[in-house]
Amino acid sequence: MDRIEFAQISPYFRAAFYGGFSETKSKLLSFDRSKSEGFLRCCALLNQLMSENKWKMPNLQWMSLQKAFEILDIASYLLIDPLLTLISDVILSKVNANSLVLAYHKAGMRYILN
């Protein structure tokens, strides 16, 4: 993806690339190490999402809930709405009331809950 594509899907990148910030003149974006790995995952998903069949929904049933939360954090930070929508749907498909109750009880076994 290039600057124009990133700017079209994210107000964060639009501001960074065209808002007079240091990234406007630079060809590099700097993230701390943990965010850069998440950013690369986001880019891979965006490339899959914006394949030759524009905005074809990829099958993400393989994705763990933990990975989905990681991508959600980065996509939220970078304001990438198409990815936020996709990942939110993945999370909703993997979480139900029973899994939330089970997670709550498991957490209660380790921590004292009020």
Describe the structure.
By secondary structure, this protein is mainly alpha-helical. It has two domains: 1-30, no CATH class; 32-110, no CATH class. The chain contains seven helices and no strands. The termini are far apart. The model has no long low-confidence stretch (mean pLDDT 78).
**Count of structural domains:** 2
Proportion in β-strands: under 5%
- What are the low-pLDDT stretches, counting only 5+ consecutive residues below 50? none
What is the radius of gyration?
Answer: 17 Å
Order of helices and strands: HHHHHHH
Key phrases:
single chain; 114 residues; mainly alpha; 7 helices; ABC transmembrane type-1 domain-containing protein; SKP1/BTB/POZ_sf
Topology at a glance:
Blueprint: H1 3-9, H2 11-18, H3 22-25, H4 33-49, H5 65-77, H6 81-94, H7 97-110
Helix pairs in contact: 1-2, 4-5, 5-6
Concise summary:
By secondary structure, this protein is an all-alpha fold.
